[in-house]
Amino acid sequence: MKHDPVDVLIIGAGASGAAVAWGLAETRMHILCLDQGGWMKPSEYPSTGRDWEAKFYGDWSTSPNIRGRPEDYPVNDDNSPIKVVNFNGVGGSTVMYTAHWPRLHPSDFKVKTLDGVADDWPIDYDALTPFFEENDRIMGVSGLSGDPLSPLTHPPMPPQPLGLSGPLIGKAMNKLGWHWWPSDTTVATMDYEGRARCINLGHCTPACAQGAKASTDITYWPQAIRAGVELKTHCRVREILTNEHGMASGVVYYDKDGVEQFQPAEVVIIACNGVGTPRLLLNSVSGRFPNGLANSSGLVGKNLMFHPYAQIYGFVKEPTDSNRAPPTCLWSKEFYDTDLSRGFVRGYGIQFGRGAGPVFEAVASEQKGILPWGADHHRVFRRLNGHRLAVSAICEDLPEEHNRVTLDPVLKDSHGIPAPRIDYTISENSRKMMEHGLARGREILEAAGATDICINNPIPWGGWHLLGTARMGTDPARSVVNEWGRSHDVKNLFIVDGSVFVTSGGVNPTSTIQAIALYVADQMKQRLANLFD
Questions:
Q1: Cα 193 to the center of its chain, rounded Å
Q2: What is the end-to-end Cα distance of the chain in Å, rounded?
Q3: How far apart, in Å, are the Cα atoms of 271 and each of 406, 412, 516?
Q4: Partners of 264 in the beta sheet?
Q5: Of 116, 242, 292, 304, which one is least surrounded by beta carbons within 10 A?
Q6: Cα–Cα dist 253/256, whole Å
Q7: Are 489 and 508 in contact (CB under 8 A)?
Q8: Residue 242 contacts by C-beta under 8 Å, 6 or more apart in sequence?
Q9: Kindly report the CA angle at 520 between 10 and 336, in degrees rounded to 5?
Q10: Structural domains of the chain sorted by starting position, each given as residue range(s) with its CATH number in brackets
Q11: What is the mean pLDDT of the chain?
Q12: pLDDT in tens, 45-64
């Protein structure tokens, strides 16, 4: 079935899709967004019930392979030590994320110039600054302005309380003379724009039934829809079609009944994350584009960056926050920028974990062999439960072409579309960085008086950040999109998600992803008269 053409078609309703939809809404163009998931129901979120932690291991796992909802697609990540985690639905992975909210640093955009590795971005931090600020206002950020080692931010809400764990971490860092700061988060600390403040209903992952955590289904999308943007759910896009002029003409998708549909469009914007976007482009083959759409560079799917997480944790005598309060509300940028005396280039951010819930503690500690079965079980569990502190080094992944997303020759989703296959190895530079992070983490935990120290290196289910697989650049031979998100090959095709990242930095990317989406929308509005030149 063929529909009337729309001016702008957006694929994906997550962090970037919502932001670009809102950013373009004022043009009054006919904007349609398709998402393969549906609207979320906070009344059904795990934290409304006492078994919320148990659900994290099944229906509400962060892994699509474990979760297996009809909206999900499988991912073959057997050939990767880090497994992909994502979420499909209105709001995308912002429904599941921990709401930790750093920005890329100005230095992250100039890695080649500063350190002689990877490539510089075709844009700099200053180009994104107004969009960072606007995004912070719409998402609703809590934090403390003035961090001396982070970009200057102006959060509209005060920071998360330090709670029980914060002072233990802060005192340990002070003892070592290392930087730490209350991190920006998108968890409301006061009533904000119709969202109620956090009441510590439970861990922010999988989802916030309170609505205190900013996911785009409750921030951007209500505003975008009021401004006239149309959003259709349970529509899984199979491929993007092109016309005789080599322009995108629309998409083929399956509706909620599994019926194949064609939606024509003047402009197509992809917002499907760093795995879903290359999957869609590689599946959109034609005579003109035999190796996948927008892939004359051969780089679609290549340069996948995950951020390997090196985690070390231990247990203190004092009570910690457990699963009460947002889990990552403190950060350190002590080791963020290059210091070649450490034996590697670039650096990492540190995230501090305030604790873990009892079910997670029981499962994880039994797996690590520190929680015995038998007569001593309950005594040891009481000593561990509610006493955990964690240090995670989020390590900058440098782009390497052999880390890639391709189409799996066998595995398919429920509509018969080839699933993505991940081939990824941790580089020698990243391994040295991870070892450095673990050593510093051990020093921090020992300064806090922790014992029973355990390591996850890397965090296996840590593929939260899916970056780099359709990179931005001015040279069509070395990039997939230009400096404002437009495909070099297909002039009416844009990409706004994390796949356009040139380098990954050492911080969570969502704030930067959304700033880029707003920036691309702004560039499109400025260039509307000559969009297809």
A1: 23
A2: 31
A3: 18, 21, 11
A4: 250
A5: 116
A6: 10
A7: no
A8: 248, 249, 284, 286, 288, 289, 293, 490
A9: 115
A10: 6-150+202-306+400-424+461-530 (3.50.50.60)
A11: 95
A12: 988 888 888 888 889 999 99
Structure tokens of 431? 């391994």
pLDDT at residue 203 in the model? 77
**Local structure of residue 122 (DSSP, 8 states):** S
Chain position carrying tokens 């003047």: 266
Query: Which amino acid appears at position 368 of this protein?
Result: K
CB-hemisphere CA count at 13 Å for 515? 23
Q: Which 3 state secondary structure label does DSSP give 481? A: strand
Helix (H, G, I), strand (E, B) or coil at 353: strand
- Measured CA to CA, the distance from residue 182 to residue 167 in angstroms comes to 11
Integer Cα distance of 421 and 405 in angstroms: 6
| Helix H or strand E encompassing 235 | none
- Model pLDDT for residues 317-343, shown as the tens digit of each residue: 999 998 887 888 899 999 999 999 999
Looking at residue 461, its amino acid is: W
Dihedral, 243, 246, 247, 248 alpha carbons, nearest 10 = 70
Token duo for residue 292: 């996948």
The answer to whether residues 227 and 102 touch, using CB atoms and an 8 Å cutoff, is no
